[in-house]
Design brief:
The chain has 324 residues and is α/β, with parallel strands linked by helices. The chain has one domain: Metal-dependent hydrolases (TIM Barrel, Alpha-Beta Barrel). The longest helix has 19 residues. The chain is globular and about 50 Å long. The relative contact order is 0.14. It binds adenine and zinc ion. The site of adenine has 10 residues, from loops.
């Protein structure tokens, strides 16, 4: 009970959350009606069937992308997810924006709505948010590079980095070397998902794509040399216990979060977030609470992980110091 209260109370830094995956079910239904998009009949939008595997989940994610369309929609969903975050004591978030998931929306329109949403949320709730534009790794490399060009063309101070999402098996990271190099030359920070492995992909992220973080990265612990390197270099891993337990990446779907425990025991810089909160039935407090049994209900690791998130975030040192 003491641990659970601490999980609610501790300030939070959120580094792994997808805007498209954070839309409340009622909002999905509302926007589907607004834009006349049919939703699957006779079941909840975020049915557990959505989680049968990553592909099934990503098709639901794409459905949400279909209904979040105009600038007002983007304003609304951004504002709503940040207002909720503030209730869980989230001070600062770096949030993934997945333009390819919203095929009906030009990038500048999306950006306008999202930026207004995050400004309003900061004014009303005090939560600060910056953006990571995620490239769709199942699409070809040219499309990724063009998206980076678009980001640079519509440069906005709120967009501070790029990422790589969707299924790793269908989009090896080396395919995006040019896109990431272009982003690097433009001064954008870089991260990428590596959820299912193999461990060699982590080396590609660090050495070839210029990533300064790894999203998920559970398989690092299957490679002793890579684990030692990441510990020595302090490479941050943005882990998502609930989505990865359901997806069987961080353990075996049994709630032990075995991989995350191994990463912490190996001295890696682990941070904790929700990935896609309503789609996986979680929130920033719940993410910490589900780790209770794995951590022996000790609040000390939660403090350490908060420290890792402060170190791992892409704020400049003055703003970073304000979070300590
Ligand atoms: N998009 C949203 N959540 C994701 C995840 N866990 N893996 C890949 N792409 C995603
Ligand atoms: Zn993710």
């Amino acid at each position: 009970a003491e641990y659970d209260a601490f999980a609610a109370r501790i300030p939070k830094i959120s580094l792994h959350l997808h805007l498209t995956g954070s839309v409340a079910p009622d909002t999905v239904v509302d926007l589907a009606r607004k834009h006349d998009v049919p939703l699957p009949a006779g079941r909840d939008v975020y049915d557990v069937d959505a989680h049968a595997d990553l592909d099934a989940f990503l098709r639901v994610y794409d459905t949400v992308g279909e209904v979040v369309r105009d600038a007002d929609d983007f304003h609304r969903v951004t504002y709503e997810t940040l207002a909720l975050a503030a209730r869980h004591n989230v001070l600062y978030r770096e949030m993934f924006l997945s333009p390819p998931a919203h095929p009906h929306t030009p990038y500048p329109v999306m950006l306008d709505g999202v930026v207004r949403g995050l400004r309003d949320a900061e004014t009303d709730h005090g939560v600060v948010c910056r953006l990571i534009v995620a490239l769709h790794r199942e699409r070809d490399a040219d499309e990724g590079r063009r998206l980076v060009e678009t980001v640079i063309e519509h440069r906005d101070e709120h967009v501070i980095g790029i990422g790589l999402d969707y299924a790793e098996v269908n989009g090896p990271p080396e395919r995006f070397r040019d896109a990431f190099a272009l982003a690097g030359r433009a001064g954008l920070h870089r991260t990428a998902h590596s959820e299912s492995g193999p461990p060699a992909n982590i080396r590609t992220l660090l050495d070839d794509l210029g990533c300064t973080r790894v999203d998920h990265g559970y398989h690092v612990v299957t490679d002793a040399a890579m684990t030692a390197r990441c510990r020595d270099e302090g490479v941050p891993f943005t882990c998502t216990p609930v989505s990865s337990d359901i997806g069987r990446y961080s353990g075996s779907g049994d709630g032990t979060h075995r991989r995350i425990v191994e990463m912490l025991d190996a001295g890696l810089a682990v941070t904790i977030d929700s990935d896609d909160p309503p789609m996986f039935g979680t929130d920033p407090t719940h993410d910490l609470r589900v780790l209770g049994p794995a951590l022996g209900y000790d609040p000390a690791p939660l403090r350490r992980m908060l420290g890792h998130a402060v170190d791992a975030c892409w704020l400049d040192d003055t703003d970073r110091a304000a979070l300590r």
